[in-house]
């Protein structure tokens, strides 16, 4: 049977660990088994148990303190992830070989890992070799997506990850519970956007004809091919969380290979007929 995985991606501060924590709690509430693997060597803490932690293999702080390397935070993280890519056997041993696993991989937030470095692509290919069905989950902070050009920037980041990894991807706007009612209503237009209308609304603010033409081309690409859509994620809304999970499950065909269990047949009621009495009544007649 296949195994299932979510690659939880997104910029730093987009709410990846909070997303994993919320999904763990939701899974427990619906009696479903979900595990988390931490792939961020710079992570400090999380409020849920993990089945594997990359910091057991390598940590950013150790790399930065190595005088022979002299890496900064970003260079140290890239070094850690490349070291991880050369030691996938550690991950295989940590994951084991349990069928029907459903695992959330909490990934680092550096966007270069998904744009021009091969590490995450190599991870996807390795997981697929281990019979995982992988879905990308790209998170963007809803508080960031309050202006059209910031929204387009978020879309381009999500699109870069989609093109690089070539896996089904569900894009999510997080921290909806932190928005005011007015902001929630305002952000609805970004969930299923009409890019041409947004372009027209903001055309006055673009002075350069070249940038206006480039922005229009980007909007056309997104709108014409329906490349990117977003689902809202409110950690306090159980129904909304379930809708997000259903979209992801559908993209990786979760549950289609589960064995069908026949319903139990109702037990027959015991026959309490007293045949001796019936025989006596027949004789008397």
From TrEMBL:
InterPro entries hit by this protein: Gpn, Gpn3, P-loop_NTPase
Domain of life: Eukaryota
Region Disordered: start-end pairs: 259-285
Keywords: ATP-binding, GTP-binding, Hydrolase, Nucleotide-binding
Pfam families with a match to the protein in the record: ATP_bind_1
UniProt-recorded Gene Ontology molecular function terms: ATP binding; GTP binding; GTPase activity
Assigned protein family: Belongs to the GPN-loop GTPase family.
Subunit structure: Binds to RNA polymerase II (RNAPII).
Function: Small GTPase required for proper localization of RNA polymerase II (RNAPII). May act at an RNAP assembly step prior to nuclear import.
Protein name: GPN-loop GTPase 3
Gene name of this polypeptide: ATPBB
């Amino acid at each position: 049977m296949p195994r299932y995985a979510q690659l939880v991606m997104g910029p730093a501060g987009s709410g990846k660990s909070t997303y994993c924590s919320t999904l763990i709690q939701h899974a427990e509430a619906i009696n479903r088994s979900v595990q988390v693997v931490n792939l961020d060597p710079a992570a400090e803490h999380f409020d849920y148990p993990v089945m594997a932690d990359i910091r057991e293999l390598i940590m950013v702080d150790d790399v930065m303190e190595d005088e022979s390397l002299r890496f900064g935070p970003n260079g140290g993280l890239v070094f850690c992830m490349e070291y991880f890519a050369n030691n996938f056997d550690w991950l295989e041993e940590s994951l084991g070989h349990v069928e029907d696993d459903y695992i959330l991989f909490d990934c680092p937030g550096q966007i270069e890992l998904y744009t021009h470095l091969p590490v995450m692509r190599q991870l996807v290919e390795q997981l697929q070799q281990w019979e995982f069905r992988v879905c990308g989950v790209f998170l963007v902070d809803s508080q960031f997506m309050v202006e059209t050009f910031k929204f387009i920037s978020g879309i381009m980041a999500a699109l870069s990850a989609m093109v690089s990894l070539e896996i089904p991807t569900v894009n999510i706007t997080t921290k909806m519970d932190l928005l005011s009612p007015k902001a929630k209503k305002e952000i609805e237009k970004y969930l299923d956007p009409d890019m041409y209308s947004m372009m027209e609304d903001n055309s006055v603010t673009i002075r350069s004809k070249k940038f206006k033409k480039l922005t229009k081309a980007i909007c056309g690409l997104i709108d014409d091919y329906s490349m990117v859509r977003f689902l809202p994620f409110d950690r306090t809304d159980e129904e909304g969380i379930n809708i997000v999970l259903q979209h992801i499950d559908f993209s990786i065909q979760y549950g289609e290979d589960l064995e069908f269990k026949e319903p139990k047949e109702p037990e027959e009621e015991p026959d309490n007929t007293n045949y001796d009495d019936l025989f006596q009544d027949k004789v008397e007649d």
